[in-house]
Amino acid sequence: MGLRTNLAKRLSNIALSNAKIRREILRSFRSNQVMFYRDLNDHSLVYYPHDVIGEQITLTGAFSREPVFQITQFLRGSGIDIAGGLILEIGANIGTHTVYFFKDIPCSRAIAIEPDPINFDLLSKNVRINGLSDQVELVNAGASSSPGTLPFMHDELNSGGSRFVENGGQGVSVDVITVDGLDNLDDLRLIWLDVEGHETQVLEGALETLGRLNPPIYLEYTPQPTASENRRLRDILFDNYANVVDFGNGCAPLSAASFDDISAQTDLLVFGQKKPVDKE
């Protein structure tokens, strides 16, 4: 039995080390909606192995965990301590980063907003199995410029790519709220924003909060085909923050002009109170 067990482990390691074979094996679980559970030392996760995020967790035990620690340290070096407060996570997906916020910052509480019903189910499970139910407020909705409903498309092989769509098609209608409509944000230390191209609309619904609390924002920025929408996001960021940094490309400081030159998806970090311009 021991010999066969060791042989099975060796064969599985060989198979999983080949990206193509690994992807085929993990995606074979898709039709039966097989869910994996992993104990990862300081936390646990449940996930679908056929998904891009699930494949990465299966392979490495984490999904993009490093930026949480890196951002915390970067902001601390800039004189901003985000530990001990509230993290507002918009686009929480299955809750990987929701858990990391408590392990690597650590925050005292979080609001996790996720519109996708499939992702939200896993998000709820991951919050519960990590003992965070009393510290995380779960919101099964999206965030946008105004409350209501919007069509939403779930990506079965890449849940991180699920998004709002202009034409509903085969998508589902989901509720949307605004950040400004949320209560109890006074201890807000960071907004973590990952919404696949809906960044402008989310921040348009958060202008009062940005002006009042000026929380740092970490966002995945996806340039849109319409230049006017990209300029609107640029203006929101530069009108409200002193520092706009291309975190995905060496933490390069951006100006309004260099922001306009961004042509591919990247991660941005904005922070610092914008000083008012003296008027003579």
Describe the 3D structure.
- The protein has 280 residues and is an alpha/beta fold.
- The protein folds into two domains: 2-60, no CATH class; 66-273, Rossmann fold, CATH 3.40.50.150.
- The chain is 36% helix and 23% strand.
- The protein is built from ten helices and 14 strands.
- The chain has helices spanning 2-17, 19-27, 52-60, 66-77, 96-104, 117-129, 199-204, 207-213, 227-240, 256-260, and strands at residues 36-39, 44-47, 86-90, 109-113, 136-139, 142-143, 148-153, 163-164, 172-177, 188-193, 217-221, 241-246, 252-253, 266-273.
- The protein has an eight-stranded mixed sheet, sandwiched between helices.
- Strand 4 (109-113), helix 6 (117-129) and strand 5 form a beta-alpha-beta unit.
- The protein is globular and about 55 Å long.
- The N and C termini lie far apart (85 Å).
How is the secondary structure organized here?
Elements: H1 2-17, H2 19-27, E1 36-39, E2 44-47, H3 52-60, H4 66-77, E3 86-90, H5 96-104, E4 109-113, H6 117-129, E5 136-139, E6 142-143, E7 148-153, E8 163-164, E9 172-177, E10 188-193, H7 199-204, H8 207-213, E11 217-221, H9 227-240, E12 241-246, E13 252-253, H10 256-260, E14 266-273
Parallel strand pairs: 3-4, 3-10, 4-5, 6-9, 10-11
Antiparallel strand pairs: 1-2, 7-8, 7-9, 11-14, 12-13, 12-14
